[in-house]
Amino acid sequence: MNSERSTIEDVAKAAAVSIATVSRVLNNTGKVADATRTRVMSAVAALGYSPSAAARSLASRRTYTIGLTVHTIDGDYFQHMLQGAEDAASQHGYTLMLYTTRSVKRFQLGRHNADGAIIFADSQADRQLAEFYAAGFPVVLLHRSSPVGMKMPVITVENKKGARMMTDHLIENCGRTRIAFLRGPDDQEDSHWREMGYRESLAAHEIAFDSSLVGRGEFVIEHARETVRGWLRDQLPIDAIFAGDDESALGAMIALQERGVRCPADIAVTGFDDIRLAQYLNPPLTTVRAPIEAAAAEAVHQLVKLINGEQAAPKTLLATELVVRESCGWRLKLRQGVNS
């Protein structure tokens, strides 16, 4: 049936429920049995029904918009994150509105233009979070902790565990002991915990921490490239580079290639996140897979709970996993072992 001719009455009739039940399902208000919800959504899909956003807003005094604040949207990582958030918002009948740090300064985020917000990392200062909290504006934090005294739901991933797994792998399976680390921004918790995982692994293997082996990657290709160029220029003895994210790993690879240093034969390179580009690098990048899209989607799910007056989970910690490809040198070591 054409969506222009489909009405809420048509949906109710097809799903064998009342118009009020269809409204509760579409607006995510009140309790509806899972089987009934599925039946209503199946009827909506079959009929191609699309409720008027304006009518929904007038009826419920909601905007049906979720705000997402970030510093910037550069890089493949943010494409993953936005995809997860947008898909989840759509499932709940919401539009995702993206605010960068600059746009938030021009347009105040609040109930007049959003029903709630997801705050990525440090894209909003604690002062602004306190204002949201005092006003009762629903907020979920993505990849950062809740400020002291504010009980805001937090969604993040196992950063320290993932970094520990990677460093363990480089030491135990790849035979690397001079492992340099490219850290992220000082004010991002992901960066802190990934470095803690790296340090924890060194300590567990009785390898002394060397501060000269820690440099700034900033989660930016060019920053990492310049840092690795400096290491090579200074002839720092290293046999592996663990980059705090995949963008930094790419910067490290570029710097090595510029100097004719072979990866992984001379220096192994690994990353964190497993963005789409990672598998297509030369050599393909060994990295820690972080559930970027799933974390963003979960932030939306928890935010919708808050908007609906329901209890959200205080903290959601999603698992990371090791993805072994060519750049760490493990498979090269295996082949050499076979041929020796």
Walkthrough of the structure:
This protein has a 6-stranded parallel sheet, sandwiched between helices. A 6-stranded mixed sheet has the order 7-6-8-9-10-12, with helices on both faces. The chain has 13 helices and 12 strands. The protein has 3 domains: 8-60, 434 Repressor (Amino-terminal Domain) (Orthogonal Bundle), CATH 1.10.260; 65-156 and 292-317, Rossmann fold (3-Layer(aba) Sandwich), CATH 3.40.50.2300; 159-291 and 322-339, Rossmann fold, CATH 3.40.50. Helix 1 crosses helix 3. It has helices spanning 8-15, 19-27, 34-47, 53-60, 76-91, 101-106, 126-135, 159-172, 189-204, 221-233, 246-258, 292-307, 330-339, and strands at residues 65-70, 95-100, 116-120, 139-142, 154-157, 179-183, 214-216, 240-243, 268-273, 286-289, 315-318, 321-323. The model has no long low-confidence stretch (mean pLDDT 89). The N and C termini lie far apart (69 Å). With 340 residues, it is α/β, with parallel strands linked by helices. Strand 3, helix 7 and strand 4 (139-142) form a beta-alpha-beta unit. It is 45% helix and 16% strand. The longest helix has 16 residues, at 76-91.
